[in-house]
């Protein structure tokens, strides 16, 4: 399986994503620059956190028009696995690959700490190794992570089982319905504010994020008929 | 022509910055201050004299990039 980690000017979690793939599933992984115009070689695309283009105008607003994003769009439409983490999530919503928008935390503070997450949908390409309702520990690090959708859209998200993670206990940013992560209708594109790539070993404070990566390898192997790992 | 573009947070979306500024104004004794909303103001020079075309282009700019219409409204004025 081949992973791509997209690198924008201002990405700063790209190395963490790369290392997380190496350390959790040991599959092939490349950094792919924002100017790239071909992602056909990759099975999974990770859009990492950071401050792409300095967060100018809005988080992810400029990044959505980087050349590589047309390829990410194509990959998503082709059913390939796409995961946006933090700024990556903001970019995917700006690009229209995921519904909603991320706005300023209601506390106005940059929140950087461990949070509990409830796995609300354990059927997506990135969450199949978790069990439904499981609470996992993953760190957050964002100032603009308050997920917003209109009531109508929220009802649609619930009806389509597109809410992937909710904050367990305190909501750190004021997001609608305690949402921490969502997916597209097909479930191959997932976006989340917390950072699973920072939680892949106990020495980092939690290893609960590792299953995001084993999940996508499972999903890819199932799709390609190879033996699944758990 | 010159365009002035205003991007504001939708009324039904929480504006924590606006709330903080409202609180600060109250602290300063400006008790007449009601709701405060913070937005963005952009000045854009356009290399055209065709008003209709400029309006159409500005609308596209706002929809595509300048505003995120999930959470923001926009309006613009044209001069010259």
UniProtKB/TrEMBL annotation, chain A:
One GO term (biological process): 'de novo' IMP biosynthetic process
Keyword ATP-binding among record annotations: yes
Active-site residues (renumbered): 86 (nucleophile), 195, 197
Cellular component, GO annotation: cytoplasm
Reactions this protein catalyses: L-glutamine + H2O = L-glutamate + NH4(+); N(2)-formyl-N(1)-(5-phospho-beta-D-ribosyl)glycinamide + L-glutamine + ATP + H2O = 2-formamido-N(1)-(5-O-phospho-beta-D-ribosyl)acetamidine + L-glutamate + ADP + phosphate + H(+)
Pfam families referenced in this protein's UniProt entry, alphabetically: GATase_5 (PF13507)
UniProt GO molecular function: ATP binding; glutaminase activity; phosphoribosylformylglycinamidine synthase activity
Keywords of the record: ATP-binding, Cytoplasm, Glutamine amidotransferase, Hydrolase, Ligase, Nucleotide-binding, Purine biosynthesis
Stored PROSITE patterns: GATASE_TYPE_1 (PS51273)
UniProt pathway annotation: Purine metabolism; IMP biosynthesis via de novo pathway; 5-amino-1-(5-phospho-D-ribosyl)imidazole from N(2)-formyl-N(1)-(5-phospho-D-ribosyl)glycinamide: step 1/2
Function: Part of the phosphoribosylformylglycinamidine synthase complex involved in the purines biosynthetic pathway. Catalyzes the ATP-dependent conversion of formylglycinamide ribonucleotide (FGAR) and glutamine to yield formylglycinamidine ribonucleotide (FGAM) and glutamate. The FGAM synthase complex is composed of three subunits. PurQ produces an ammonia molecule by converting glutamine to glutamate. PurL transfers the ammonia molecule to FGAR to form FGAM in an ATP-dependent manner.
Subunit structure as annotated in this protein's UniProt entry: Part of the FGAM synthase complex composed of 1 PurL, 1 PurQ and 2 PurS subunits.
Annotated NCBIfam families: FGAM_synth_I, PRK03619.1
Name assigned to this protein: Phosphoribosylformylglycinamidine synthase subunit PurQ
Organism expressing this protein natively: Cohnella endophytica
Gene (UniProt): purQ
From TrEMBL, chain B:
EC number: 6.3.5.3
Enzyme superclass (EC): ligase
GO molecular function: ATP binding; phosphoribosylformylglycinamidine synthase activity
Protein name in UniProt: Phosphoribosylformylglycinamidine synthase subunit PurS
Summary of subunit composition and partner proteins: Part of the FGAM synthase complex composed of 1 PurL, 1 PurQ and 2 PurS subunits.
Keywords: ATP-binding, Cytoplasm, Ligase, Nucleotide-binding, Purine biosynthesis
Similarity annotation: Belongs to the PurS family.
Organism in which the protein naturally occurs: Cohnella endophytica
Role noted for this protein: Part of the phosphoribosylformylglycinamidine synthase complex involved in the purines biosynthetic pathway. Catalyzes the ATP-dependent conversion of formylglycinamide ribonucleotide (FGAR) and glutamine to yield formylglycinamidine ribonucleotide (FGAM) and glutamate. The FGAM synthase complex is composed of three subunits. PurQ produces an ammonia molecule by converting glutamine to glutamate. PurL transfers the ammonia molecule to FGAR to form FGAM in an ATP-dependent manner.
The keyword Lyase is assigned to this record: no
